[in-house]
UniProtKB/TrEMBL annotation:
Keywords: Acyltransferase, Lipid A biosynthesis, Lipid biosynthesis, Lipid metabolism, Repeat, Transferase. Its EC number is 2.3.1.191. Gene3D superfamilies: Hexapeptide repeat proteins, MurE/MurF, N-terminal domain. It is an enzyme of class 2 (transferase). It catalyses: a UDP-3-O-[(3R)-3-hydroxyacyl]-alpha-D-glucosamine + a (3R)-hydroxyacyl-[ACP] = a UDP-2-N,3-O-bis[(3R)-3-hydroxyacyl]-alpha-D-glucosamine + holo-[ACP] + H(+). This is UDP-3-O-acylglucosamine N-acyltransferase. GO terms for molecular function: N-acyltransferase activity; UDP-3-O-[(3R)-3-hydroxyacyl]-glucosamine N-acyltransferase activity. The active site is at H241. The keyword Repeat applies. Pfam families: Hexapep, LpxD. It comes from Flavobacterium arcticum. Pathway: Bacterial outer membrane biogenesis; LPS lipid A biosynthesis. PANTHER family: UDP-3-O-ACYLGLUCOSAMINE N-ACYLTRANSFERASE, UDP-3-O-ACYLGLUCOSAMINE N-ACYLTRANSFERASE 1, MITOCHONDRIAL-RELATED.
């Protein structure tokens, strides 16, 4: 796709300084700009590159005035960083603007779908599925029976949505995600042999949820595993059966959450955190990376460590831990002096 400086300025409500017909078809860092690329200058630290970059167009702040001649066409805006981000979002929307049903693909009985559906090749849509408007389902994806998918939701290639799952509006589900697989439910008999406990619940993703690549969200044993509005999940996260994650909580990669745990809204959970089952974590909680959480956490607390404790207490304790060899040596010396005095 090619865009002129004039078109880009129209999108960003900016002013062109230079050639309004200059064309770009790719993006670049300012220090790595090449002909036909669009870049931006927001951080003064990179201002030197505006004079040497070969990028065809650069987005700059309105306050920027070149101190030497430049060959790049400028688009002046109020905030170059925000404008470049807006342009990336627009570019993504254009890039994903697909529609139509590719073949081969399978659509089951009693499937209902809205306007502008894109269904990539080698997709399977089960029976009695309901799909909203402007939904994009990329190739090699599976949608099981009785699934509901809301408006403007995107399923990237290779997503698996098991039966009975409910996906809201404006959700983005990346490649390799599995939603609705069985929860880890087994019960031992008298001989110690484990038998599977049927998992007959479902998964509900509310609106505006993002799920990163290769994340798995298990169906409930009974009832629902619920991911509430605005939750953002990174890649490679495991969410077990009957977990509930509150609105606008964000969770980083490789975190594992065991069954029936409830997490509040507006929480921030770092990478590689382990959370045991059947506990409650309050609203606005901050959990540092690689923490192990084994008990209920009240609202507004920041924790770290394994087992996790208060963030400030952890840092104080860590100072002592680093000095532990010296502290032990001092204790031995005090004992030695005490014996000599006695």
């Amino acid at each position: 796709m090619k865009f002129t400086a004039e078109q880009i300025a129209g999108i960003l409500e900016g002013e062109v300084v230079g050639n309004p017909n200059a064309e770009v078809h790719k993006l670049s860092k300012i220090e790595e700009g090449t002909k036909g690329s669009l870049t931006f200058l927001a951080n003064p630290k990179y201002q030197q590159y505006i004079y040497s970059t070969e990028a065809t167009i650069a987005i700059v702040n309105k306050s920027f005035e070149p101190e030497s001649p430049i060959s790049t066409t400028l688009i002046k805006v109020e905030d170059a960083y925000k404008s470049f981000s807006k342009l990336l979002e627009y570019y993504n929307q254009v890039k994903l603007m697909k529609s139509g049903i590719e073949q081969p693909s399978v659509i089951g009985d009693d499937v209902v779908y809205g306007d502008n559906l894109y269904l990539g090749s080698f997709c399977y849509i089960g029976k009695n599925v309901k799909i909203g408007n402007n939904v994009k389902i990329y190739p090699n994806s599976f949608v099981g029976d009785n699934v509901t998918i809301g408006d403007n939701t995107i399923l990237f290639a290779g997503v698996r949505i098991y039966s009975e799952s409910e996906i809201g509006n404006n959700c983005t589900i990346h490649s390799g995600v599995i939603i609705g697989s069985d929860g880890f439910g087994f019960a031992p008999n008298e001989e110690g042999v484990y038998s599977k406990v049927p998992q007959i619940g479902n998964v509900i993703l509310e609106d505006n949820v993002d799920v990163g690549a290769c994340t798995t969200i298990d169906r409930a044993t009974l009832g629902s595993t619920v991911i509430k509005k605005g939750v953002k999940l990174d890649n490679q996260i495991q969410i077990a059966h009957n977990v509930v994650i509150g609105e606008n909580t964000v969770i980083a990669s490789q975190t594992g959450i065991a069954g029936s745990t409830k997490i509040g809204k507006n929480c921030i959970i770092g990478g590689q955190v382990g959370i045991v089952g059947h506990i409650t974590i309050g609203d606005n909680v901050r959990i540092q990376a690689q923490s192990g959480v084994g008990k209920n956490i009240p609202d507004g607390v920041a924790i770290q460590g394994t087992p996790a404790l208060g963030y400030t207490d952890f840092n104080k304790s860590y100072v002592h831990f680093r000095n532990l060899p010296k502290i032990v040596a001092d204790v031995h010396e005090l004992k030695k002096k005490s014996k000599q005095q006695n």
